Amino acid sequence: MLAKISIAPRVLALSLMLLGSAQAAGPVVISQVYGGGGNSGATLRHDFIELFNRSNAPVDLTGWSVQYTSSGGGVWQATTLNGVLQPGQYWLVQQAAGAGGSQDLPTPDSIGTINMSSTSGKVALVNTTALLACSSNCLPNSQVVDFVGFGAASSAEGAAAAALSNSSAALRRANGCTDTDNNAADFAAGTPAPRNRSTAVVNCANGGGDNGGGGDNGGGDNGGATARIRDIQGRAHISPLNGKPVSNVPGVVTMVVNNGFFMQDPQPDNDAATSEGIFVFTSSAPTVQLGDAVTVTGKVAEFRAGGPTGTNNLTTTQLTGVTVKRVSSGNPLPAAMVIGSGGRIPPSKAIYAGPAGDIESVGTFNPAVNGIDFWESLEGMRVQLNNAVASSPSNKFGEVVLLGDGGAYASTRTPRGGVIIAADDFNPERLMAQNGTVKVPTVNVGDRFGQATGVINYAFGNYKLQLSELSPLISGNLQQEVTRKQAADELAIASFNVENLSPNDSQNKFDRLANQVVRNLQAPDIVGLMEIQDNNGATNDSVVDATDTYNLLIEAIVRAGGPRYQFRSINPADDQDGGQPGGNIRQGFLFNPARVAFVDRAGGSATAAVSVVKQADGVALSFSPGRISPSDSSFDASRKPLVGEFRFNGQKVFVVANHLNSKGGDQGLYGRNQPPVRSSEVQRNQQTTLVAGFVKSLLAADPQANLVVLGDMNDFEFSDALGKLKQAGLHDLVELLPAGERYTYVFEGNSQALDHIMVSHSLAKQAEYDVVHTNSEFSDQTSDHDPEVARLKLSPKVVDISAQLSISQSGLSLNRATGQYQGTVTLTAKQAINAPIAVALQALPAGVTLRNANGQLGGVPYVKVFQNLNAGQSVAVPVLFVNPTNARIGFNTVVYSGQL
């Protein structure tokens, strides 16, 4: 053999052998070839080519390619490579799929579409993307880094490797370390064992471990030192052995899943900060069973779920590229760590209280103080909750949040079984249970389990108890709440997010919502609705009108025994208000015309901004209904506040219905960045600044104005956003409730107030408030929000509206049959006036009485008029007098509005 010539950093050489041409050994070799993917009898769905860096230096593969042609062919196909291959790493190139097979490859490092032969062919690793053009005598070639001919190949390094089949691959010996420049000597046919860059690193200095041609799923002696699980987990969120090979790690299998298993060291240390459990990733269904004592050889890896969108997720420590040896079977499982009384009690306040930033690199690890560290110290371990009470309902993903010991170590509990958040307490004592080898049943808040046992895992931004044992459910018999009926002089105003309501929803949803309005809310006078969609819901077309949606709900309310509400709303511009694409979500008002009147003023539109104006009878809206700052960028792709002017008991009431920017996009409580970045607050604070500006303008024009600001604010009573509205002069009525009752929504087991009714000073002292819990705590929800209602005591208010009328009096005539004097007072409206109105006659002579008076105001008799007057319209009001002394009758006419 000729001497080998190295050219750094990509090593190439020329050699000749008696049996044929050879390509001198380089740092990167073809370590496995398989062309039977998806064929009859194959397990794997794809063909593949595997590369291996047998050197002690990284190699940049960018601009290289793997190429294939048939055994006698000269037309090559190429798959381009891109990336760096570290020493001892494998690189998996996925190729074409067949129609059969039952298993996918491990995550490939490159993907091609070459359909390879299952028996014979030629494969080359080339340091360019230019296609080879040879059929035979392909070597030597300065562009070829490595070359494999197999079966009846017309070219090879030395002699061709053995012919393959649908169930066999060509595997380079010693896990890829062997390279004698002879394909026949270097490769053996064996079971395909695809390996990628996540597979345990192989150290060729230690011989690599001959796989004997049979394949060992990336196993063999990988040069790792023996370690126990606690050494791998360490006292941190990232393993101190991350990326390192380890061998003969002992443990007992505690749970088996479809791509691996959890195991736990049965001989724990006394350090609570180091976990004794770990996940072993096998990529396909493992062959171990519960209770097997095993030793595992592989590579330590930190897996971060979620791909490009999961960058804030914590990692889970795993063993990958593993060889598993069963030592014994049927062993008892390690005892589950009790969380709570008799075991480890989790922190009850701080999820994280250390230095700000990425806790995987800058954080201090303190399980005694930080909830995020407490649960990390149990990652992969069996734990047990006793007397576990549900602080959330179960969801469609098979999850429910539990509190151990009946919630004894939780902070502020709700009367119905949940747990309340506070500005400095998001309840780290909660633990989300999820489907494991046993399933989560249907659960409401307050339901209990005598015992819940499983393994601590981390997924979708939360530590989770993957269940293996669950006692029978003990029902808490949770019932929907019913509020009291408003009195005659109480204006009842409700806020209700009806969760993307549209005609596409079932009649059952409309009927259930109607029942909540009529029965649970006791038919409020005004209902501010959020998440009303247009007439065809999420169909993404030009339809924006929602009349059908409103009418379906109104008719359902009538059938449920409620009043026939009317509605007011403004259609948004198409696809400009966020929410479900095509749904054209918006707010709207329902009102009972038998109890309240809506003041309609033309001009409101999707883009016109409402303002406060002064009129003869006081402050008013420029148009009603109207939208607050709809063109401001703060409301881009978000719902615009809707404001309307109402009259009740002769008093004006202004109501603003809101659905502020959602909390979507905020970082989770258990993410790597602490404290979590709540990016949604930026837009929400901008929005509340604009709403607060409207509030200030109205209250500046009339400090005693009756103003209600309600809706799904998507923020808490202690938030900066709500603080801006309080500073503008509003009172948040949820703060009238005890701390444990301040919630309208349950998220990940945390009860919290996202919906609010806020009122001006004139209403605050006469307000009664109630959150009516009908949805958020139940697995069977009509909406994900609970409705809320405020009852505002507004006694009739009498207002002098004489200036809004032209008033004339007729002469009086005597009816000799009755002895009464009769005449008329004619009223002509200068502007629209709503009934009832009262015509009071002042300064009547002594002894003269108004015979047809309906009552008195301050000792002055009046006659009521029940007719609405449009501008320019007149009404003649008859007056009858008793005048026993025949005195000359004269009087002054004053007209009032209001209930008398």
UniProtKB/TrEMBL annotation:
Pfam families: Exo_endo_phos, LTD. Transmembrane segments: none annotated. Keywords: Signal. It comes from the Bacteria. Residues 15-152 form the LTD domain. GO terms for molecular function: catalytic activity. Residues 1-24 form the signal peptide. The keyword Ubl conjugation does not apply. This is LTD domain-containing protein. It comes from Chitinivorax tropicus.
